[in-house]
Amino acid sequence: xxxxxxxxxxxxxxxxxxxxxxxxxxxxxxxxxxxxxxxxxxxxxxxxxxxxxxxxxxxxxxxxxxxxxxxxxxxxxxxxxxxxxxxxxxxxxxxxxxxxxxxxxxxxxxxxxxxxxxxxxxxxxxxxxxxxxxxxxxxxxxxxxxxxxxxxxxxxxxxxxxxxxxxxxxxxxxxxxxxxxxxxxxxxxxxxxxxxxxxxxxxxxxxxxxxxxxxxxxxxxxxxxxxxxxxxxxxxxxxxxxxxxxxxxxxxxxxxxxxxxxxxxxxxxxxxxxxxxxxxxxxxxxxxxxxxxxxxxxxxxxxxxxxxxxxxxxxxxxxxxxxxxxxxxxxxxxxxxxxxxxxxxxxxxxxxxxxxxxxxxxxxxxxxxxxxxxxxxxxxxxxxxxxxxxxxxxxxxxxxxxxxxxxxxxxxxxxxxxxxxxxxxxxxxxxxxxxxxxxxxxxxxxxxxxxxxxxxxxxxxxxxxxxxxxxxxxxxxxxxxxxxxxxxxxxxxxxxxxxxxxxxxxxxxxxxxxxxxxxxxxxxxxxxxxxxxxxxxxxxxxxxxxxxxxxxxxxxxxxxxxxx
Length: 564
Prior knowledge:
This protein is an alpha/beta fold. It contains 16 helices and 30 strands.
């Protein structure tokens, strides 16, 4: 790992200029870090309309370097154009994304603004080979170097463990990590004290007399067993109903002109928070990988106040700029712009040079440009009608047929496949972008009743997400009835499901351990972790097939029939 040797740009943890964080004795179980007032020198802004610019990123997911993908219809509508086949970026696989390009946009927009903050809604970790090799070091270093002012702690920050998050933050993060709804309870863990010391519930920014308070709302929905006492992360979850009014009132008492919720809870939850808590003025959101342009405006049900909700997309595709006019603690007006991150944006020289050392190591150790196969059409991770998908069918079939596995059926979660594979050469880098998680295959035996329960749960979960299937399967066909939230007409390898039958299934270790709410799998006592990497299984299958799709391979075939 690069961080284990002397680094050319050492960056011990420190707070950026303008951030004011202190200690105040608080009642109850809430952490004691709160903003303190700033003395002297600030202009009197009473009665004056002043402009504030907020630059927003989220869900970078280790898309540290440029990559290729096929922009969706929605991406196109938001300004991310399809690449011209004659553009050199197509051949080099560098048409979209990259932190050096993001840094260019951030620095250019800072230079055009007076009072400006760059805030990030989390999940800068996990999503490409960069994280697999460097554990988040490259992302934290680059974000620090471009001047990030604050970030909320999100679920994928824990993907290499809490110890890793603490280590990376101590060594490389010059920005505060915020989480008002986490309390670090388990002091017996070696990382507990560090994370408790490093993370803050809030931060206050003094911008030439305009004081902006920020409350971090960390993710709750995607961390296994986080609501259980003595969970493996040693986190005590604090109630939003307690945390948000408490810290908003403290921030206002310390002179905040605005209170921002920096969230990684998802759009639906953020809408509820905006409707419920009148103490907040603005929400910057993440987690759902959506870009909203224009932002949503949510009416608070208590006061009727209109609260902007901003989401700026994922995978280094966009940078958001929100301009506010503020007078006497009120937002008078807003305007918003999304900046696409594509090959027309040059690399920032400073960040480009910082990241080049990581690229050189990847090239030496992995050869990320190695060609594994060829995609003659875009290989999609979602089904065109909400059911089974090309990559889902391909992955599940490869899992169950792999030597040493060879089960009757297979099931994996759709979101474990993170991106489509675009037309062209399928490289090692492409594969890591598509399947970044280091999941292994777990086998287990399920009764017919348990199989029904698993598929019912998957159907109910899918119905809450637009009736888009949250699982991909092999050896199983069924109707996913999102109206009744039940799985119907289940057939296992051509034979209707037998209630008293026993079926051997291959799945991934994440949902086998209860990830995404699959409790029926978590309590299964027949589990065997094979240690076989799902990514390696898929890699082997791509090499064997050479070109995809082929007839009957990596195609939708209707094995999951979505009814809604």
